[in-house]
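Just curious. Protein, please.
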Amino acid sequence: MSTPQLLMIEDDARLAQMVGEYLTQSGFNFAHAADGASGLDLLQQRSPDLVILDLMLPDTDGLEVCRRIRSLPNGLAKVSVLMLTAKGDPMDRIIGLEIGADDYLPKPFEPRELLARIRAVLRRRGEHAQSDASAPQVMRFGSLDIDRNARSVTVAGEAADLTSYQFDLLVAMAERAGRVLTRDQIMEAVRGRELEAFDRSIDVHMGRIRAAIEADAKNPKRILTVRGVGYVFAKQQD
């Protein structure tokens, strides 16, 4: 099994050194870039498995860097992104998730929590990449195709743009089509982190998934909201 490759884009050199030493001791290969431009260059050179991305960078903000990552060619856009955000600023977290971050961690943080988040994101990728061979490779719901092996989604033949985590959420819901799922059940289905109080991350991700697969995200037909409960993925779709 190859050693997971991590890239941290962070302008705080002392923090990056501390994190790098801890993650290296924990069995990862670690690279560091001090600004957005050099981080994007290093990402394209090394093709890491996960990017730890600080929101505040000297040349540009992390949100813009995340947008650029998601527009990269040759599969690089699918790299997992864990964003570091300011503690107590939920709007930054929501925006980060909306533009493609897979998870976020508020500063200051404990290295052990960062390690746990990294392992959770990489585990999700690995588990779904090695999905049960007896399961159908492609799930079809009307014009919507979900290809487990290729980790891709198309609507009427057009590719839908989803992050790795959003793909996992969609697969989890499609596997349970017709069942009403609470937010906790959806998070548990992909073995993600536990919900925090008033955490809107699932709602944000559902909004992004709807924008990618619905003809009209404001009037969804595939992922329906059940008020006071959660969501249901429709069995019958056009």
